[in-house]
Amino acid sequence: MPEKKTRWDIFCTVVDNFGDIGVTWRLSRQLVAEHGIAVRLWVDDLRAFERMCPEIDIHTSQQWQQGVEVRHWASDWQPVEAADVVIAAFACQLPGAYMDAMAEREKTPLWMNLDYLSAEGWVVGCHGLPSVKYRHVQKFFFFPGFQKGTGGLLRESGLLERRRTFQQSPEMQREFLQGLGINPAQGAQLISLFAYENTGLASWLDAMAGDTMPTHLLVPEGRILGDVERWLGVDGLKAGALHVCDALTVQVLPFVRQDQYDHLLWCCDFNAVRGEDSFVRAQWAGRPLLWHIYQQEEDIHLDKLEAFLALYVNGLSETAREAISGLWRAWNAGDNMAGHWQSTRKHWPELQKHAETWCLEQASQADLAAALVQFYVNWI
Ligand code: TRH
């Protein structure tokens, strides 16, 4: 008889943007593909999901996508049996009836809160600690992170090998880019731009337009487009739009599926990313990056930004550290980017090498899905 699969339920509420569904969808697929787990992914907003997985039928309450059972987490909760492992992503509140089902299950499930990603030092101390209890069911904190002693980062098996093969093949890159209608001029540097609204953008675009080196800037449809429109002096930018301003070509892209977005990051010389998941994917791309961190109340995100920078700049020369830190701080403050961009460009070869070193260092840790599975194994 085939061994019975372990069943995991992953709960995701889409607060805003794409990070919540981006992380849980990626994790679910990996648990199915690499660990043979039966995963049910409960999502309250299928429309956000549809953006990165166009096969999603937003009118269906139960469907299978890439081996994952996707369930619409509707407000009128219908009772179901609890799974062996229950993950509440980003501290979302599980339905009361489901918590009762956990408590009444013959074998108590492992209940974990998959937290937000942070490089802050306290994460190491809190990872894996017990949190609250519901009846006799204990919840545990599970923290992703960059340091030993955390839950690590999402990284699919063979990802870096696939990335390297792709980056070593001009044909594969050309074919991929052409598939998206991207035909950069010979010698142009490619930059991707995924960010929240940012008052510093105009100064960065000015700097790129006035540069001696041509830049082809790729902007997936999203929140930064308003700032791009203002700078270009146009309205209603849509996927496919292409504008040339001196040395800068700006091209708007459609929002693509996660795997395609990875390939886009792998093609680019520099990636501006945001939030959580794209930030991690840009690190796996092994190329210099710029992080637009998700803004939180009382500016607590700035502590997170500094905590990451403190780790990331290790091993860089003093001047390269200052350049990249200055650029990131200016971007996150919405300040003028011009001087910081010029300083960063001066350290390009060093920053390129460093991005690969950082990627390899991070990849030497267990990936997040494997760490979750190990946590469960240790727990039983
Ligand atoms: O969309 P985000 O800003 O999500 C944020 C963060 O997760 C933040 O921490 C959280 O608090 C907030 O949401 C609620 O950025 P993030 O995390 O990078 O998620 C974007 C997802 O979209 C990621 O999985 C990559 C994916 N993506 C595509 O699939 N296709 C695309 O074309 C693009 C640009 C992104």
From TrEMBL:
The keyword Acetylation belongs to this UniProt entry's keyword annotation: no
A molecular function GO annotation: translation elongation factor activity
Catalytic activity: dTDP-beta-L-rhamnose + L-arginyl-[protein] = N(omega)-(alpha-L-rhamnosyl)-L-arginyl-[protein] + dTDP + H(+)
Keyword vocabulary terms for this entry: Elongation factor, Glycosyltransferase, Protein biosynthesis, Transferase
Function: Protein-arginine rhamnosyltransferase that catalyzes the transfer of a single rhamnose to elongation factor P (EF-P) on 'Lys-32', a modification required for EF-P-dependent rescue of polyproline stalled ribosomes.
Entry-linked NCBIfam families: efp_Arg_rhamno (TIGR03837)
Source organism superkingdom: Bacteria
InterPro entries, per database record: EarP
Upper lineage: Bacteria, Pseudomonadati, Pseudomonadota, Gammaproteobacteria, Pseudomonadales
Name of protein: Protein-arginine rhamnosyltransferase
UniProt similarity note: Belongs to the glycosyltransferase 104 family.
Classification via Pfam families: EarP (PF10093)
